[in-house]
Amino acid sequence: MVGVRAELKALFGPRALLSPAEKGVYRYDAILVGPEPLAVVLPETREEVQALVRLARKHGLSLVARGAGSGLSGGAVPEEGAIVVAFTRMARLELDPVGRTAWAEPGVTTARISEEARPYGLFYPPDPASWRTSSLGGNLGENAGGPLCFKYGVTGDYVLELEFVDSWGEVHRLGRQAYDLPGLLIGSEGTLGLITGARVRLLPLPRYRATLMAAFPEVGALAEAVSRAIALGAVPARLEFLDPVSVNAVEDYLGMGLPRGHALLLVETDGDDLEVVEEELSLVEETAKELGARVQRAKDEREAEALWRARRSVSPALGRIRPKRVNEDIAVPRSELPKVVREIAALGEAYGLVVAQFGHIGDGNLHPNILFDPRREREERVWELAHEIARVALRHGGVLSGEHGIGLMKRAFMEEAVDEGTLEAFRTVKATLDPHGLLNPGKVLP
Amino acid sequence: MVGVRAELKALFGPRALLSPAEKGVYRYDAILVGPEPLAVVLPETREEVQALVRLARKHGLSLVARGAGSGLSGGAVPEEGAIVVAFTRMARLELDPVGRTAWAEPGVTTARISEEARPYGLFYPPDPASWRTSSLGGNLGENAGGPLCFKYGVTGDYVLELEFVDSWGEVHRLGRQAYDLPGLLIGSEGTLGLITGARVRLLPLPRYRATLMAAFPEVGALAEAVSRAIALGAVPARLEFLDPVSVNAVEDYLGMGLPRGHALLLVETDGDDLEVVEEELSLVEETAKELGARVQRAKDEREAEALWRARRSVSPALGRIRPKRVNEDIAVPRSELPKVVREIAALGEAYGLVVAQFGHIGDGNLHPNILFDPRREREERVWELAHEIARVALRHGGVLSGEHGIGLMKRAFMEEAVDEGTLEAFRTVKATLDPHGLLNPGKVLP
Ligand SMILES: Cc1cc2nc3c(=O)[nH]c(=O)nc-3n(C[C@H](O)[C@H](O)[C@H](O)COP(=O)(O)OP(=O)(O)OC[C@H]3O[C@@H](n4cnc5c(N)ncnc54)[C@H](O)[C@@H]3O)c2cc1C
Ligand SMILES: Cc1cc2nc3c(=O)[nH]c(=O)nc-3n(C[C@H](O)[C@H](O)[C@H](O)COP(=O)(O)OP(=O)(O)OC[C@H]3O[C@@H](n4cnc5c(N)ncnc54)[C@H](O)[C@@H]3O)c2cc1C
């Protein structure tokens, strides 16, 4: 390994040779911790990425791509002896307001794209709740969604061109023609190539927004209301849900007068005409009322912002109930939501563990969070429950991951989730694009 | 081959053993003609497709998937000794209005999805001009677009799940998770798998539509107007263009009073509020006028329909100028449109051939059509010109195919269009999913 260090030093100088304390930061993402990496490299150009791939090949080392490390499936967590490639310094961003596109390097923070597009009346729709920290590279790695994805779609829907370095160190820059290799790279969690840039689509900013909060006595009625309003033709931009556990936690945290013990639905409609935007919100309002909800419409931007702040505070708020948690991420058909939410709540009770549920309910995307204290509650039981929750999703025709990816966390589960033929096809794809197992080994595939 | 015939007969009965006259129909698509296939099979179930793949493997025969044969790149044209798999009889369609999806077999005609969704207030956006004949399987094979794709996106953007039979005869039914194999199959022109079904997304029908026609003295000004209006924030649903040659041809054909010698822009806006829909159209109207256009707004549905009929009549109208034509299909950045349209017109003149241009101009997608009479004009020169046109696109940062695919027609061109590394990656994908070259050999890859 001395040879590797010397070579890394020659190629990248001190950037590659962080102290053990510094390297410690690169052991974990937002859910899992791994061993200390052999080295952490912060490349600044695609040529440096190429050189790194060639070096890793020569020495038989593995490379783990990393954006902001905000992932929730362990995708960026290194295995023993791996080199972490952190893309934070590759963060150039060029806007083309006329063509309504942006060329962005992987280290660009998600929120920055919309911020820089705003003066031109444009925005970049994919908005994971983590968007102030998460990177475009990580969003591409996980094909991240966000509250806006019900109306606007996920990261991959906005990619026009993708540039990546393959496991031989070659650069490719591809549009989405003939064989859609960019599509194959998107969502592959760093296991098929290292993304060094993307051209993404921007959309015109809608002129108006309107927000409401509906408080339901019970989660099933909330799910029912969502499903009915959508069937009636509502296409809200955001459609978020908090169960009573989450509501109480946020209320303890912010003290903003949320209705404790209720299930909350937050809805935003958007568009270029205030009347339509209001009308569409009214459709949701009426449906919610029919199902027993109390509805509060935000009177202005400030009130709306406060409601959305409640949603964004779920994560820190839950952190105050128990020091640790496992964030599940499932997606089920909307029609199954009432049953699924109730079954998960019952499972939590049966295990004697606190489970909070929230998520992008318009897409049937739920984030059941199991909260625990490792000093008092056995972590194995927590993971057992997480697996039971995933099984509930599969039983109801859902999928293993709504948007956080498979990573380390769910790879063992792939065998239950997809048939052997599909797994075989996945393995073939991996073996073809990365025959030496250089890129993020041990992720995605069981 | 007697063994093959006997086996086909045992498996499929007379359906597989069409007479030479009947088989003749399966030699061509809408642009190229090939040899007579060995056999034509019309499977009715996925199990029959599987049996056919196994039979073809055993005998070392190739399989050419075929939908309606309306393709414009020769994708469904058989090679010598191939079996054509025509999906016309696999045409089951099941709607789920609440989930806003449809499960469709490949033989379902594109337009039928929207027709059956209409009573539920829903529609299926991808709308190739050929949608009354083209099949979903062919749309998936080519990742077809259409006039609505500027606002709504292409076929692949609506696919939630894909079912296909691989070259070993195994069936896979996949969502778009982990490695996006459905995305790889979409646009692969029958070379990676035989698609036997798809779950597609449906959208709520917009309540209002408004249409205008703008007549420009010159094509460059038209392209400029499109680019400016879009930069100002207009998101029309349809944005179609006809050059003066096309306009004259349609006027000769329909006699509806179109302004001969002008370049025409047809624009439709849609949405749930009449005012916004009208406003958005006004934005385009003003920009067009600034650039010297005469603008006519459709007063009602009937007038709008007449204008769109003009657009849809381009194909038959051009057929009256010369008996044959080669339909090119390029896409270039919008900013390059004025230059590209002019260069192509000049090339046509230099070759002494009639070139008509029209297309989905909002996406920069042009269809330069070379019209010719094989008795008087040498077909080689026509193809030479077609290649020159493709080169114009590449020189201006465009791509080889906007939406019709590579097929037979453009495969020789792939070498100029993509770098060797990308081609190598494409070949690897093909060799991995179809190692025996069973599926539509000789297409896409040079
Ligand atoms: C509070 C909170 C809220 C969240 N909300 C959402 C949400 O609403 N929606 C959602 O989808 N996710 C959400 N997430 C999860 C996470 O933020 C997303 O998955 C995000 O896309 C990760 O980005 P990152 O830059 O942090 O990536 P990382 O965690 O660093 O990496 C993620 C994966 O991408 C790979 N990768 C990173 N860069 C590259 C590259 N250049 N080339 C190839 N592969 C690469 C990594 O190897 C890894 O497998 C949330 C997380 C938190 C902590
Ligand atoms: C007048 C006219 C207008 C047109 N306008 C447009 C337009 O606006 N936009 C546009 O994109 N195209 C347009 N086209 C081209 C054509 O209609 C589209 O490419 C359409 O998608 C082809 O569908 P098809 O069913 O006819 O496919 P086919 O021509 O039969 O096949 C097309 C390709 O798909 C493959 N394929 C077919 N079925 C399957 C299957 N089940 N599994 C795997 N592969 C399969 C075939 O092997 C072939 O490679 C137009 C054509 C005409 C003649």
UniProtKB/TrEMBL annotation, chains A, B:
Keywords: Coiled coil, FAD, Flavoprotein, Oxidoreductase. The keyword Flavoprotein applies. Pfam families: FAD-oxidase_C, FAD_binding_4. This is 2-hydroxy-acid oxidase. The keyword Flavoprotein applies. Residues 274-301 form a coiled coil. Residues 33-205 form the FAD-binding PCMH-type domain. The lineage of its organism: Bacteria, Thermotogati, Deinococcota, Deinococci, Thermales. Belongs to the FAD-binding oxidoreductase/transferase type 4 family. Gene3D superfamilies: 3.30.465.10, 3.30.70.2190, 3.30.70.2740, Uridine Diphospho-n-acetylenolpyruvylglucosamine Reductase, domain 2, Vanillyl-alcohol Oxidase, Chain A, domain 4. Its cofactor is FAD. One of its GO terms (molecular function) is oxidoreductase activity.
